[in-house]
Design goal:
The complex is a heterodimer of chains A (275) and B (408).
Chain A: E1 11-14, E2 20-36, E3 39-46, E4 55-58, E5 62-69, E6 78-79, E7 99-105, E8 110-115, H1 121-126, E9 130-136, E10 145-154, E11 164-167, H2 173-176, E12 179-182, E13 187-193, E14 200-205, E15 210-214, E16 223-225, E17 227-231, E18 235-240, E19 246-251, H3 255-259, E20 263-269
Chain B: H1 2-11, H2 16-42, E1 61-69, E2 72-79, E3 85-92, E4 96-97, E5 100-102, E6 106-107, E7 112-118, E8 127-133, E9 138-143, H3 154-176, H4 179-183, H5 187-216, H6 225-248, H7 258-285, H8 292-311, H9 321-344, H10 348-374, H11 379-383, H12 386-402
Antiparallel strand pairs in B: 1-2, 2-7, 3-4, 3-6, 3-8, 5-7, 8-9
Helix pairs in contact in B: 3-8, 3-9, 5-8, 5-10, 5-12, 6-10, 7-8, 7-9, 7-10
The chains are: A mainly beta (275), B alpha+beta (408).
């Protein structure tokens, strides 16, 4: 799964005043996605996948998102962050077959979200219309291996309860495909919770502790822990590394979610020069 | 009369060319039906347009059986929906679990699969197995009190046989032992006793029907449990009647003799006890045997009255001893067969059919007993005679009350 380490920086150009302009194209599509081995889910997607693309920029950039609705239902894109009222994606509903241009300046820096805001909201979100929106600080964060993890669930039989819980859309994906990292390598995970129906989701990393920057809006304030919980829409940035090589699990610390697909492994390979 | 005969000659005249015509007329509707089906399927008619409902929304899996063995759970599941289904994921107590399916996770209509799940289940606790299909539809089955499933083998074979003897054979013989006592009582009492028997049987018949209808909920709708019940019920009723009439010949169309009737009752009760054995065996297998001892005791008391039913028509004759032995075996032994079928190889559609057969047999017996008693007079009039009415209601109530002992 390339989603984990893929960031869409948009088509970059320079404005006359020296600012950076980034243009993105996001298309709403009805797609069947495989949410667990063999289980298909008739999803509503941004660009054909659940979660939608991870849009990334820097604070102060001019953002232009060309939103095309090629699905069968009316949708919008509602971004978290500062923007004018008519760019909020609540009242300007985009019917099937039409388009909308979202234009605003990216602020504040941190990890944010975008999602459809058409009613019934619960339906439009659990069907898959969400993604993360990362605004880097003017002074970039230290170099690290960066990943994005969107925590979500899928209600495959539409009874308003999730059958599967996943990271980035496929149950148990990182059990079957452990994430390979190096011992002592600095890691940064952009973490967001978009689980519908359940009040909370959480993450726990085995055999390590991380700095957790809630919403990523402050560079000097963090929590030092190995378990955090997030309400729907809450997010943050994890920074850490592994002290020992080996296979280390990470999972929701709600055992129920863990055993319904929200589980994975980091495969930590020994650092060069270490046994 | 003449006119009718004329008509008959007109429709079925003799001679070869007309016979040909007859064949043509016999086949014509079939030919036209075939042609219509061909046209319907070959042309893209409006009737055959794409279904408004996506086929995966109609997926259906029916659990037929669950078994718990050391370190593993086995589920037998049938695709009872209109289209193919793929079993994609298996959950045990709300956790994704590894599993194997034979012959294949892809199930066509009516195909059955065996799902084996390695799982350290906990004795006495509830376990829920959920199957998630390729379309994300969830089908669940829960066993409330989990116990080890008997493995077909000598030990269980003999255990179930013993169970059948306790529940079916012994009580029937105990009932038969009342013969010398009842043979000595006055006619009125004897008549009352026969009505008592009718009351007992009426309860048993209704009970078997209820069980059959309950079991239909476990078969997929595709098997049309109600149709199976009608088949078993009426098929058995009419079949037994035909059997009774054949032996009797055309002779005066009277009711059967006392001994014949006693055998008929024994046969009817035997068929009913087969169904009873099925439910005991199945209960044992489904882990509901926590109630097992009680169930066995209840059925034993309940079934003692069945012996009474058998001897009631022969109280005024003195049949040879061996008849009692035979009748006891005919009525009681099917219980053993029932527990074997129910306990070792459980099939839900088959058990629905067996229960309906049992009910049909019982109702047929009631019919015969009542005719025997009425001796050509109106049946309702006969039943309204005070000692008969009291007997009837008493028989029904005894069954109703001893039924509390087997209520699960």
């Amino acid at each position: 799964m390339t989603f984990l380490t893929t960031f869409d920086y948009g088509r970059v150009s320079q404005l006359p005043d020296g600012r950076v302009r980034r243009e993105y194209t996001v298309i709403a599509l009805d797609r069947e996605v495989e949410v667990a081995s063999g289980v298909k889910f008739p999803a509503w997607t941004f660009n054909g996948f659940v979660p939608g693309p991870t849009l990334r920029c820097s604070e102060g950039d001019l953002i232009k998102v060309h939103f095309l609705n090629e699905s069968s239902m009316p949708h919008t894109m509602h971004f978290h962050g500062f923007h004018p009222a008519n760019m909020d994606g609540v009242f300007e509903i985009v019917p099937p077959g039409s388009r909308f241009l979202y234009e605003f300046t990216a602020e504040p820096f941190g990890i944010h979200l975008y999602h459809c805001h058409v009613m019934p909201l619960k339906k439009h979100i659990h069907k898959g219309l969400y993604g993360t929106f990362i605004i880097d600080p003017p002074q970039p964060r230290p170099k690290a291996k960066e990943m994005v993890m969107v925590l979500n669930g899928f209600d495959t039989d539409f009874d308003n309860e999730n059958e599967f819980y996943t990271v980035n859309g496929v149950a148990n994906f990182f059990v079957e495909h452990p994430i390979e990292v190096r011992q002592d390598e600095p890691l940064r995970i952009y973490l967001a919770n978009l689980t519908e129906f359940d009040l909370l989701n959480s993450i726990h990393t085995h055999a390590t502790f991380f700095k957790f920057y809630r919403t990523g809006t402050r560079l000097d304030q963090y929590e030092y822990t190995d378990t955090v919980m997030l309400c729907q829409g809450e997010r943050g940035i994890m920074e850490y590394s592994y002290k020992f090589p080996g296979m280390f699990m990470f999972h929701a610390h709600q055992s129920e979610f863990a055993e319904l697909g929200w589980m994975g492994f980091f495969k930590v390979v020994p650092a060069e020069g270490k046994a | 009369m003449n006119r009718i005969e004329e008509g008959v000659t007109h429709i079925a005249p003799r001679g070869t060319p007309n016979r040909m015509r007859l064949v043509v007329f016999a086949l014509l509707p079939l030919f036209l039906l075939g042609a219509m089906i061909y046209l319907f399927l070959s042309s893209e008619t409006l009737l055959l347009g794409p279904s408004p409902v996506p086929p995966e929304a109609l997926q259906r899996l029916t659990f037929e059986r669950m078994a718990f063995y050391p370190g593993r759970i086995v589920a037998w599941v049938r695709n009872t929906g209109p289209g193919p289904v793929q079993i994609a994921q298996v959950l045990v107590n709300d956790a994704i679990w590894g599993f194997t399916v034979t012959p294949s996770p892809d199930l066509n209509r009516l195909v059955r699969a065996t799902i084996t799940i390695p799982y350290e289940w906990v004795e006495g606790e509830p376990h829920e197995v959920a199957l998630i299909t390729d379309a994300g539809i969830v089908f669940t089955e829960e066993v409330e009190v989990t116990t080890m499933t008997p493995v077909p083998g000598w030990r269980y074979f003999s255990l179930f046989a013993l169970l059948g003897v306790y529940v079916g054979v012994i009580p029937v013989f105990l009932g038969l032992l009342w013969f010398p006592f009842l043979a000595a009582v006055r006619t009125q009492w004897m008549e009352g006793l026969m009505s008592f028997t009718v009351g007992l049987l009426a309860f048993l018949g209704l009970d078997a029907l209820k069980e059959a209808f309950e079991a239909t909920e476990k078969v997929g709708p595709i098997f049309k449990g109600e149709a199976l019940i009608a088949l078993g019920l009426f098929g058995t009723f009419l079949g037994l009647m035909a059997l009774g009439q054949r032996g009797k010949g055309e002779r005066e169309g009277a009711s059967p003799s006392g001994l014949r009737l006693a055998y008929l009752i024994a046969l009817g009760i035997g068929l009913h006890n087969l169904g009873e054995g099925l439910s005991i065996g199945a209960a044992y297998q489904l882990g509901e045997v926590a109630l097992g001892a009680f169930l066995v005791l209840g059925f034993t008391i309940h079934n003692t009255t069945e012996g009474l039913a058998i001897i009631s028509p022969i109280l005024r004759s003195a049949p040879a001893r061996y008849h009692f032995l035979f009748m006891g075996v005919v009525a009681g032994a099917p219980t053993i067969v029932g527990t074997w079928i129910g306990g070792l190889t459980y099939s839900v559609p088959l058990s629905v059919l067996f229960l309906a057969i049992g009910a049909g047999a019982i109702f047929q017996v009631i019919y015969e007993v009542v005719r025997f008693q009425a001796r050509g007079k109106p049946v309702l009039q006969m039943l309204a005679i005070p000692h008969n009415l009291v007997g009837l209601l008493a028989g029904y109530l005894v069954m109703y009350l001893t039924g509390f002992l087997v209520a699960v």
